[in-house]
């Protein structure tokens, strides 16, 4: 009878699962399923052990018979009810599979939770109490069947897993589930090698008792919800949680002996045993804290029983602190030695680029002696040959741009094989031999051959080939080279809006007030605020201006630093060491008695204002604060000047004007192909500027003949403007070339509103293998082309332009960011864990390739990172109190295959972790340095291309002799927030016998001592293009610094180490290739400008912070032939004039100058009037130069008289 009940419930559960799939898991169906699983669990308990418990409870035969009859009667009632309901449920399933309707869902609920079924619950509860009480009295010597226990545990755990709406016992039940899972996995683990049930008697008895009590308590939580039972139930669950990890010595001894027996067994493991190992180690890690609490005396014999070279520990005092790390290493070993092919996931983007990257690395490895030895016993040559063929096939498929399912399946198989090859090769390089039946080179070679035959058959199909080529030509036309993007935003339709905001800023009350700009995402709130912020009427009206981006997640310290940086050009030396309170005081101090404007961009709640308000004094002079926000209610009502300014959507004509301006800047007339889609475009974009801009980016990279089809595909969607923007983003992403998709999605691996330094972003792209190498360009230049292309498609925003034709920093819009986060995870490219995610609950997928974590500092101690396949790990933390350090060394033992590691915001415990030396695949390493030197073992990282040392101790850093062994180094940088001219000291001994760093492209900052042989040192960087140096000088010594050996150098920044402010005697011999030159603190006389003026390729010249000393600079004619950008800042110059010899002759002074910037030159009175004759001069920016106004007016008048009306002079 009981067997029949069990079969009926199992059948009903199968039908119910099918219905759940049909109706997409509605909550009430899950509740029905949960009731059935609990019913099944009770049936198992009653039929397996009910008779034993009845005999245990009564001494007389009559009592036994009565109890037994009562239990049998309940089982019969369950049988009758279930038999009828299972038939009804099956009928509902059959009808739903043909014609699903939600009316049938309610029939299911009525069927399973009818009155006759519900009436069973109180009696089941009483019997559970009886079973629970009896199980605690059973002798541990009684034989308990392991299979019976496991069947019961499986059913119970399924009940707990599907349990919803826990109510008051939510967290407790979850903990109960984890601990029961551990017991189950432990039993499965120790019986891998045929440990008999009789050897596990006390353990099985213990497990049965706690499992039955857990079943009773969880049943009580779900079906006996009486308020008076709440405290009692919580107490009972807590008591049970403490007993699940056994403390009884007899049970402990059983565990130890079982471990020893399993260890001594020599039985070979089967195919399913790898999963058993993984399950056990994972549940062991979840419960290790409670195991440790039971005491090292209990743990010691158990752990020493597993003598696999990892868990041995003689020092019991260190056991608790080291055990977790050692267990984690076991899990990694299990994952590596028993890889699960079903979990072997891989990115879906940039497959062709990845194979190119893999082939290049493989060819390099096999050409080295170390590589030849490593691969001696493996068919690596055959793999390499097949991989070349694989690349050719994939290239053909990518060129077809087909969505044909057969082609896509072949493509996916090819890429998956390539990733498996990489995994095998990289594992071999770190000493892990994974050559097993499921992951072997031989099996991969055979698989490639099968795929190749299928691919050739499909690709040679003439009908498919011709069809795909036609589609490709129409929709996927790409320009042969990247166009130069327009850096400045095109602003349409904001004239009235900006005038209204400016009026509110410059008029009205003299009290401090907030002007709030609100609107949906993508509407242009930030664009409007930026337009107002930079308008000449605002810059001249306010004495101080500051802009900071708040975002959803913000830190008061960072906001204050951002504001302080804007309002003060010369910050205190210790500003980055200040507390939050001191920073707030500094901001307030500098705003006192000044009329100021502060922009708080992207505000999400009023707490941001509450934290900053005290720093904004009300001077009674008309100071203002601008909010931009998606919400109307973030600004305090008492501070608002009037109602928030709700930004309207663009009119159809404005949308059209914006599209034209983006596609055809400077042209009034649009071509016919664009006019044909005008109506569809303006209707589709629904007045959302971001959608217009993204659509323009799509169309700009398509053949105009495909425009109509692309727009029609989108305009048919009847969705909101935000959803429309997302749909447009999908199309924009789809039309990106494969080379750009991964680069674009990579933005989703950083914190929201993160501002990207382009040099470091490009280095990351290169290290990740996203950048295709060519013989004509360096990888950095190709990556820069990628960035420019993303900007030109309006997917990336320029936040800081370079002086000329370049991008210093960039970011992406919030909507694009969310798209990248979601799409990157969907495409398996990377996964971002955000600071509002629970890091302790996050389990890293076994074969996750890239993991980016943005979390509070203290949460990193909860990081469970046990994925050996991780290739990139980026950790971000911006906490105000982020000075605490923690130990990540155990992670480095696990992620042995990592290639990109960014720890630049994480304080590591101790010095440079020696465990990093083992990460031989590293290409990119950023670290927060805690002392002033690298270890010599850094040379073990022979693949390192980018090395960034972020200075936490504010000192220069000594490099070891072994630095010359890092022959692949391309980017070496020291970052210091306090003084950017702390530098690297390179070893100068034995330079003649040291290797050159031929690939080094960027170095910042190099210490130069002119007293030593500088030329020998500089010759170690023969191909460097960007260099920052700090020069050690002594007064009253004549120096000659020859740098002309750097024949590839394009950008040079030179500063003197600060020891007083004397004038120094120095001559530089610069390479003629220099395009950008920046000088600081040398105090040279102006006559030394002659050597700089002769540089034939110089385009950008910056003379900053006492670079030159003297009141008069008299320019010579015919100098600076190509300079387009000139900046003079913090100099004591009074008169800047043209040479009197040529003052009245038609001579060229800066003949190509486009932009002149003058900053903090307090004494400057005269600027060369001959600049008024320049036909190329476009803009003069003047800040804190109060005495040169008349000279500027003279230049402006001269420009007008010469017919040059485009010159802009901005004074602040």
From TrEMBL:
Stretches assigned to the NB-ARC domain: 497-665
Protein topology in the membrane: Peripheral membrane protein
Similarity comment text for this entry: Belongs to the disease resistance NB-LRR family.
Organism: Coffea arabica (Arabian coffee)
Gene name of this polypeptide: LOC113689427
Task of the protein: Confers resistance to late blight (Phytophthora infestans) races carrying the avirulence gene Avr1. Resistance proteins guard the plant against pathogens that contain an appropriate avirulence protein via an indirect interaction with this avirulence protein. That triggers a defense system including the hypersensitive response, which restricts the pathogen growth.
Protein known as: Late blight resistance protein homolog R1A-3
Domain Disease resistance protein winged helix: 750-819
Any one Pfam family match given in the protein's UniProt record, by short name: WHD_DRP
CC per GO annotation: cytoplasm; membrane
């Amino acid at each position: 009878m009981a067997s029949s009940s069990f079969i009926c419930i199992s059948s009903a559960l199968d039908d119910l699962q099918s219905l759940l799939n049909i109706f997409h898991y509605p909550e009430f169906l899950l509740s029905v399923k949960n009731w059935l699983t609990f019913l099944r669990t009770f049936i198992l308990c009653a039929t397996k052990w009910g008779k034993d418990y009845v005999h245990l409870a009564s001494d007389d035969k009559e009592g036994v018979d009565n109890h037994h009859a009562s239990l049998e009667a309940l089982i019969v009632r369950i049988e009758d009810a279930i038999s009828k309901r299972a038939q009804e449920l099956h009928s509902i399933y059959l009808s739903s599979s043909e014609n699903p309707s939600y009316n049938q869902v309610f029939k299911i609920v009525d069927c399973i939770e009818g009155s006759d079924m519900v009436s069973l619950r109180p009696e089941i509860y009483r019997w559970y109490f009886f079973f629970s009480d009896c199980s605690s009295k059973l002798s541990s010597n009684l034989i308990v069947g392991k299979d019976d226990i496991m069947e019961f545990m499986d059913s119970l755990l399924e009940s707990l897993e599907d349990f919803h709406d826990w109510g008051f016992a939510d967290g407790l039940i979850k903990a109960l589930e984890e601990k029961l899972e551990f017991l189950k996995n432990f039993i499965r683990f120790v019986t891998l090698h045929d440990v008999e049930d009789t050897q596990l008697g006390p353990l099985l008895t213990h497990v049965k008792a706690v499992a039955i009590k857990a079943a009773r308590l969880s049943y009580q939580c779900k079906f006996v919800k009486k308020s008076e039972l709440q405290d009692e139930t919580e107490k009972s669950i807590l008591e049970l949680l403490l007993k699940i990890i056994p403390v009884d010595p007899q049970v402990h001894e059983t565990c130890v002996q079982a471990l020893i027996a399993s260890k001594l067994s020599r039985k070979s493991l089967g195919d399913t045993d790898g999963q058993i190992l993984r399950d056990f180690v994972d549940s062991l890690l979840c419960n290790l804290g409670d195991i440790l609490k039971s005491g090292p005396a209990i743990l010691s014999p158990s752990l020493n029983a597993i003598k696999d070279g990892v868990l041995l520990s003689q020092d019991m005092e260190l056991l608790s602190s080291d055990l977790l790390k050692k267990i984690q290493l076991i899990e990694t070993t299990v994952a590596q030695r028993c890889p699960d092919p079903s979990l072997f996931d891989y990115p879906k983007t940039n497959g062709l680029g990845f194979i190119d990257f893999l082939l290049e690395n493989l060819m390099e490895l096999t050409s080295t002696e170390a590589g030849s030895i490593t691969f001696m016993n493996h068919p690596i040559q055959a793999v390499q040959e097949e991989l070349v063929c694989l690349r050719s096939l994939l290239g053909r498929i990518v060129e077809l741009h087909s969505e044909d399912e057969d082609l896509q399946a072949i493509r996916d198989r090819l890429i998956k094989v390539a990733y498996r090859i990489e995994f095998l090769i990289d594992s071999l390089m770190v000493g892990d031999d994974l050559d097993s039946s499921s992951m072997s080179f031989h099996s991969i070679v055979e698989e490639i051959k099968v795929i190749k035959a299928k691919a050739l058959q499909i690709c040679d199909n003439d009908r498919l080939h011709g069809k795909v080529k036609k589609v490709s030509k129409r929709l996927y036309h790409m320009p042969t080279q990247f166009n130069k993007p327009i850096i400045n935003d095109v602003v349409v339709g904001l004239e009235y809006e900006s005038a209204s905001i400016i009026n509110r800023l410059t008029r009205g009350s003299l009290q401090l007030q907030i002007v709030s700009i609100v609107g949906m995402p993508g509407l242009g709130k930030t664009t409007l605020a930026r337009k107002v912020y930079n308008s000449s009427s605002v810059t001249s009206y306010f004495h101080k201006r500051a802009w900071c981006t708040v975002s959803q997640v913000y830190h008061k310290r960072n906001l204050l630093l951002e504001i302080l940086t804007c309002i003060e050009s010369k910050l205190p030396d210790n500003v980055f060491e200040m507390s939050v309170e001191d920073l707030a005081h500094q901001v307030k101090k500098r705003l006192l008695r000044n009329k100021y404007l502060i922009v708080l961009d992207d505000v999400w709640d009023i707490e941001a204002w509450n934290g900053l308000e005290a720093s904004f004094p009300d001077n009674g002079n008309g100071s203002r604060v601008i909010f931009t926000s998606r919400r109307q209610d973030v600004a305090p009502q008492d501070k608002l000047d009037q109602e928030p300014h709700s930004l309207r959507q663009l009119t159809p004509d404005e949308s059209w004007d914006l599209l034209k301006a983006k596609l055809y800047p400077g042209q009034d007339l649009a071509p016919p192909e664009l006019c044909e889609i005008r109506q569809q475009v303006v209707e589709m974009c629904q007045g959302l500027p971001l959608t217009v801009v993204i659509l323009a980016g799509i169309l700009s990279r398509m053949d105009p003949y495909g425009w109509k089809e692309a727009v029609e595909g989108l305009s048919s969607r009847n969705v909101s403007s935000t959803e429309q923007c997302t749909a447009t983003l999908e199309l924009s992403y789809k039309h990106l070339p494969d080379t750009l998709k991964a680069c674009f999605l990579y933005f989703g691996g950083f914190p929201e509103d993160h501002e990207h330094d382009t040099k470091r972003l490009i280095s990351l792209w290169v290290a990740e293998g996203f950048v295709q190498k060519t013989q004509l360009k360096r990888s950095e230049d190709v990556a820069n082309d990628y960035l420019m292309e993303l900007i030109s498609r309006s997917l990336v925003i320029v936040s800081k332009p370079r002086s000329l034709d370049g991008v210093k920093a960039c970011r992406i819009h919030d909507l694009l960011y969310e798209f990248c986060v979601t799409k990157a995870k969907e495409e398996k490219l990377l996964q971002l864990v955000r600071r509002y995610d629970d890091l302790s609950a996050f389990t890293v997928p076994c074969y996750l390739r890239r993991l980016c974590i943005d979390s509070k500092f203290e949460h990193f101690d909860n990081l469970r990172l046990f994925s050996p396949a991780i290739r990139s790990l980026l950790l971000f933390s911006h906490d105000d109190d982020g000075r605490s350090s923690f130990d990540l060394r155990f992670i480095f033992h696990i992620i042995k295959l990592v290639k990109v590691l960014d720890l630049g915001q994480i304080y590591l415990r101790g010095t440079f972790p020696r465990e990093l030396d083992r990460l031989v695949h590293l290409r990119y390493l950023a670290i927060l340095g805690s002392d002033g030197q690298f270890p010599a073992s850094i040379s073990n990282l022979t693949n390192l291309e980018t090395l960034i040392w972020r200075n936490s101790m504010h000192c220069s850093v000594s490099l070891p002799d072994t630095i010359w062994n890092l022959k692949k180094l391309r980017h070496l940088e020291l970052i210091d927030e306090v003084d950017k001219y702390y530098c690297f000291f390179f070893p100068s001994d034995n330079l003649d016998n040291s290797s050159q760093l031929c690939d080094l492209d960027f170095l910042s900052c190099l210490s130069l001592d002119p007293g030593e042989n500088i030329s020998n040192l500089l010759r170690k960087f023969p191909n460097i293009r960007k260099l920052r140096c700090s020069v050690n000088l002594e007064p009253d010594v004549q120096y000659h610094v020859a740098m002309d050996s750097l024949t590839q150098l394009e950008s040079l920044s030179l500063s003197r180490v600060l020891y007083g402010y004397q004038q120094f005697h120095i001559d530089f011999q610069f390479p003629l290739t220099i395009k950008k030159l920046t000088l600081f603190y040398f105090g040279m006389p102006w006559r030394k400008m002659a050597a700089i003026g002769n540089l034939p390729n110089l385009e950008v010249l910056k003379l900053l912070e006492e670079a030159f000393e003297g009141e008069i600079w008299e320019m010579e004619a015919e100098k600076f032939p190509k300079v387009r950008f000139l900046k003079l800042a913090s100099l004591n110059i009074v008169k800047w004039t043209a040479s009197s010899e040529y003052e009245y002759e038609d001579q060229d002074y800066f003949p190509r100058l486009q932009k002149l910037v003058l900053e903090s030159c307090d004494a400057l009175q005269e600027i060369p009037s001959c600049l008024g004759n320049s036909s190329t001069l476009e803009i003069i920016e003047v800040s804190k130069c109060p005495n040169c106004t008349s000279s500027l007016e003279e230049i402006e008048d001269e420009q007008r008289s010469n017919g040059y009306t485009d010159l802009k002079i901005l004074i602040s």
